[in-house]
Amino acid sequence: MSTQSLPITGDWPGDHNLIQPADLVIYYINADDQIVAVNAAWNQFAADNNGADLILARIQYASLWTFISDQDTRLLYKHLFAHMRARGQSITLPFRCDSPLERRFMQLTMTPMVTGGIRFASYLLRTELREYQPWLDVDAPRIPGWIEMCSWCKRVRNEAAHWVAIEAAIESMQLFETVRPPQISHSICPACVAQIEHELMP
Fold first, then answer.
1. Structural domain boundaries in the chain
2. To pair with 170 at 20 to 30 A between CA atoms, which of 29, 30, 70, 163?
3. Which long-range contacts (CB under 8 A, 24 or more apart) does 49-53 make?
């Protein structure tokens, strides 16, 4: 694992000179759940993944809730934050952040700060190549209609209300010949809810 000094940009007093893994993506929220600082890897990850609107200059002091529209996901995050802030304990969870050409298996550690803020640190564990998947391409044109995707594991809810991999959803819903993918709405699947709630158990 390569390491380097990753400067933190934004309104945050700590971590500026820490030696960290080069691909550790870090951001901070303050006690009001506003994004206040990120490290260089955050901006680079955003630039590499069609996320120019997510660099710090565009999002600093924006509410985190601006980026989480699903109400169930919001409630779960708020429960997580309240738990961490009350107990002063970090929580580490697996998650996926896939691209059209890769499955990305990642790990997120959320650490409460004495100021009431929270530090988020994401680390890439491994990747798997996949055939180009337009469902995950933000620039791909879309057909009318929506498909529900879990924001944590990237499984898709099919017509039978089962949460399955994108490729399995395409097969079960007979979308092989659909050139343009449906629009994606994000929520959280029951398996990921159960895993997160397990981490909250005393």
1. 3-131, 134-185
2. 70
3. 49/99, 50/138, 50/139
Residue 134's SS3 state is helix
Residue 77 or 50, more confident? 77
Using a 10 angstrom Cβ sphere, with 0-12 exposed, 13-18 middle and 19 or more buried, the burial of residue 82 is exposed
- pLDDT of residue 127 exceeding 90, the answer is yes
Phi-psi region of 72 (alpha: psi -120 to 50; beta: other; left: phi over 0): alpha
> Which sign, positive or negative, has the C-alpha torsion 162, 81, 121, 56?
positive
Angle of helix 71-87 relative to helix 190-199, nearest 10 degrees, comes to 10
To the question of pTM greater than 0.85 for the whole model, the response is no
List C-alpha distances in Å: 125 to 49, 128, 129: 18, 11, 14
Cα angle, residue 147 at apex, residues 145 and 151 outer, rounded to 5°: 140
Over pLDDT 70: what percentage of the chain?
85
What is the distance between the terminal CA atoms of the chain, rounded to a whole angstrom?
A: 33
Which residue in the block uniquely carries the two structure tokens 């629009």? 183
Class of domain 3-131: alpha beta
CA 88 to CA 83: how far, in whole Å? 8
CB 83 within 8 A of CB 200: yes
